């Protein structure tokens, strides 16, 4: 029988050298301050047990991992109608971002590239009276920690560097695929990215992805079992930007990464894992984080 | 000896059928109200004489023809340093607009595509305390009519449909090629486009392009003779968007068009012409306007 | 306990209306002759049992499904070195085919788009003295039918319409990523596509994908268990061209489609399935084939 | 009164430092052997007089300058019908070559980019029983030297490096815009590029461009005066690849360049000039050649 605690500790040892590799994100000061050499991993199995190892108490902002939760919340409210505004296909290269968006007339390729997450945020904005509060409360309820907060320094800093994201939002607006005020939606979007957690809280937040849509903390059926399988398929094909194929090849699990150096990965019917290590590869994904999940994947049955 | 007045009258007759063709611009209400079947032409020879025919007293907004004057004003202030921020090459297709801008890292291909005119407006904004007033005064001085005004309804309407231009401006800003507030620069840009003239005023405004840089109304050496030759070369290769090559092939003169249905054309050492007819072809250029200039070109020596 | 035979028969009934939809491929006469209204499905479970329903004895050419086998044969010979010549990432849109190949300097995005399969064929060509024979023999051994043949009419017809594929091959050659004679490699490639099977033979040929790399007919460890998992991940992210994301969303299994109307799908540890129905959707995938696999996926545990 | 001989000698002195700059083309051995530090210039005025200075007797292959003559010969045979197969618009960047061709469905942007010259060669191939001979004879007749020959070493070497051009030809063929055998047309195309001349012969060959279509050597009306003006407009907007705009800005004359380091330039009604110096800038245009034409342009009236 597999001993998860031992496995996580061995993973920690295995990836220690990798945790010094890569470069931390530098486009905003708050992220640039992160130190390499740190690593944490946690997983929650579908019986509710939590295992962890490494720098478990360290906090970090969720960044693009928030896109998986805001997509979930948009699917709760719009169902398949959401796909009228955003696609389900992998996106090709980063270089394409605006190119692709222009060529495809303002409909982002999938909900995990920035344009897709921003249009999802616009959709949520239309249905929630206090969207930032609502997403934060969702994180709190699903992580089981009502003290989860937003790092306002990070949110402000992201907003000050919003130009490229603003360009995408205005381009979508020119195609009629953006309903609310660009600046307000972007402010909400950056707040979602700036929610601060540790790996245990993050693994718990996404427990529903391994558990047929039911959150192990709140007990809520967040989305249906079928929707959960669909969302995992999207994460499998598109969760790691331009490295989605390589991640699938090496790890073989649905996942989502963020530039703070965090990644979640899902083994349906078994567990949701979260890793964190700030050193990033050239695709913006955590070097040690991917190495850890690749190592973990060798030992788990799927 | 060539009789310009007769030539312009014959041109009017020749293009009458074309003036009913094409479609008026519809993206803003003020332009959509223009009626087809109208046509006007004027030219000013370098000895200062003015010839005209057709609906000469009709007013229209200059739209993109303003780009030639704002570029001139930016060259006065920056000289060749302006080319650090905007290129001198033809742009290929419309479809490329943001694609090309992204691929070339925020430096627009030339000053006559929208992105290039917007970055030029940003440059002017940095050097003028009252940029809208300054450009308007320039039009007044060079057209010889101090009553030229801005059509505020058009300016407001353009601003309300600014999304695609805002996307370009924010994309340039993300690449560090935009210095001022996006909304303020766009507002100035739309005001330049909304300056209202008739064909005689327009031909006079650009008399310096055929006269080695000296305005026939103000007597000012607006730009040097060498700069004038350079600007005419740019107009030749890039003045009519995606139809620049076709215009060069058919007309063979430097030119600049606007979506109100106006076009200026320059025969260096001889005259500057202006035409106006609201019906546009699929490239956004006046059908009768191009036909008129093509007809005119057959009769003038160059 | 799940009764596969009943499930396949119910699937047949379910998709009957879909089998009349879509359009058969028309770019070569041999494919254009296929009739709509036909459907067949087969699967082989990892205990070796075979189930089937519908027009099971009907033969069709494997077309792009051959890419999964030629990739396997190239991985046997080159291992991970193959990835120096072809990527592992999803490809974005069809429109991109040559665009992407040019931008990425002759390295195809993945082995399932045409350019990627052609470079894989070039790699095989360098290592096999009789490549067409070798691939045919592999199909025979793994399908358990030594009478599988190549449809030469189809191969010839594809070759006569080779121009776009030739363009890709020459473009790769210009970047130094093509070793052999373009025409000869294309001839081999079209022969692989023209291998003729029925759904039972096809499901058996790919049994190793659900069985940790071991073929249920030949008993051979075709590729390692780890390689098999990797290959399934690639099929999941890139197996259905521009509809890979939609297929993942609806079916959630690794798969590969061909323009003859066939699709294989893999449920690791359980079975390999093959379907066939000639009516294609706008992405070139079998309408009834996808509907069948989507229906099947609802009933099997994964 | 302008003394051309003095002007050319002053030009020689002026550009001497530039002749050591840039890099000679290296993609084929025959071009790589050219030495920097050489320069030659010649011009023929419309009264038939020839002026020259520098390394006037040095021979070089015409390379892409041949495109101006093959286009002329195609216009003789097809007139405006040629524009059904090739466009008249500037092309944007080199990077776009296949991208643009794919996006625009196999119709090259203009006849001076490689794809456009190849489709023009295909058109000529359909109408000439001995196309290579015919083009060579045209060069001989118009240069006034019946001993002009093709450098077969260069032609062979170009053909061996034909892959990218073959990719374009096959792509056009896939879109139905290529009538003859790809390899045969490419062989003719490379022979046109390998015609060997000196600057005097080259200036004479293109005398018709400054003389309303009449060749000063043969006396033939090669194309009409109107077609000549049109062709000059095309050379103005598209003759120097990605540097067409910059060349227009600096030189302000229609021109065409080749990778052997040669450029022709036309001042309609006055002269046709040819320069040669093998050192190329990053766009593949002769450094000293452009500098010479820029210098020349300052002194001539236009």
UniProtKB/TrEMBL annotation, chains A, B, C, D:
<dbReference type="GO" id="GO:0006537">
    <property type="term" value="P:glutamate biosynthetic process"/>
</dbReference>
<comment type="similarity">
    <text>Belongs to the glutaminase family.</text>
</comment>
<protein>
    <recommendedName>
        <fullName>Glutaminase</fullName>
        <ecNumber>3.5.1.2</ecNumber>
    </recommendedName>
</protein>
<feature type="binding site">
    <location>
        <position position="158"/>
    </location>
    <ligand>
        <name>substrate</name>
    </ligand>
</feature>
<dbReference type="InterPro" id="IPR012338">
    <property type="entry name" value="Beta-lactam/transpept-like"/>
</dbReference>
<feature type="binding site">
    <location>
        <position position="165"/>
    </location>
    <ligand>
        <name>substrate</name>
    </ligand>
</feature>
<feature type="binding site">
    <location>
        <position position="241"/>
    </location>
    <ligand>
        <name>substrate</name>
    </ligand>
</feature>
<feature type="binding site">
    <location>
        <position position="64"/>
    </location>
    <ligand>
        <name>substrate</name>
    </ligand>
</feature>
<keyword id="KW-0378">Hydrolase</keyword>
<feature type="binding site">
    <location>
        <position position="189"/>
    </location>
    <ligand>
        <name>substrate</name>
    </ligand>
</feature>
<feature type="binding site">
    <location>
        <position position="259"/>
    </location>
    <ligand>
        <name>substrate</name>
    </ligand>
</feature>
<dbReference type="InterPro" id="IPR015868">
    <property type="entry name" value="Glutaminase"/>
</dbReference>
<dbReference type="Pfam" id="PF04960">
    <property type="entry name" value="Glutaminase"/>
</dbReference>
<keyword id="KW-0007">Acetylation</keyword>
<dbReference type="GO" id="GO:0004359">
    <property type="term" value="F:glutaminase activity"/>
</dbReference>
<dbReference type="GO" id="GO:0006543">
    <property type="term" value="P:L-glutamine catabolic process"/>
</dbReference>
<feature type="binding site">
    <location>
        <position position="114"/>
    </location>
    <ligand>
        <name>substrate</name>
    </ligand>
</feature>
<comment type="subunit">
    <text>Homotetramer.</text>
</comment>
């Amino acid at each position: 029988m597999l001993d998860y605690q031992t496995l996580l500790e061995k993973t920690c040892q295995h990836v220690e050298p990798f945790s010094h590799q890569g470069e931390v994100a530098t486009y905003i000061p708050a992220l640039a301050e992160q130190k390499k050499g740190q690593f944490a991993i946690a997983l929650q199995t579908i019986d509710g047990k939590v295992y962890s190892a490494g720098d478990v108490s360290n906090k970090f902002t969720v960044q693009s991992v928030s896109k998986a939760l805001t997509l979930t919340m948009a699917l709760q409210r719009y169902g398949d109608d959401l796909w009228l505004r955003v696609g389900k296909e992998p996106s090709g290269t980063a270089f394409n971002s605006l190119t692709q968006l222009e060529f495809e007339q303002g409909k982002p390729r999938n909900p995990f590239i920035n344009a897709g997450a921003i249009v999802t945020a616009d959709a949520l904005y239309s249905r929630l009276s206090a969207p930032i509060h609502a997403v934060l409360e969702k994180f709190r309820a699903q992580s089981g920690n009502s003290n989860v907060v937003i790092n306002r320094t990070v949110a402000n800093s992201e907003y000050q560097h919003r130009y490229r994201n603003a360009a995408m939002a205005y381009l979508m607006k020119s195609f009629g695929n953006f309903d609310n005020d660009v600046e307000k939606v972007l402010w909400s979007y950056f707040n979602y990215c700036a929610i601060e957690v540790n790996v245990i809280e993050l693994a718990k937040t996404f427990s529903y992805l391994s558990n047929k849509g039911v959150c192990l903390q709140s007990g809520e059926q967040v989305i249906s079992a079928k929707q959960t399988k669909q969302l995992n398929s999207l994460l499998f094909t598109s969760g790691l930007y331009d490295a989605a194929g390589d991640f699938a090849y090496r790890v073989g699990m649905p996942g989502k990464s963020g530039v703070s150096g965090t990644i979640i990965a899902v083994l349906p019917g078994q567990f949701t894992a979260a890793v964190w290590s700030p050193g990033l590869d050239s695709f913006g994904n955590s070097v040690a984080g991917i190495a850890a999940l690749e190592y973990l994947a060798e030992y788990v049955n799927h």
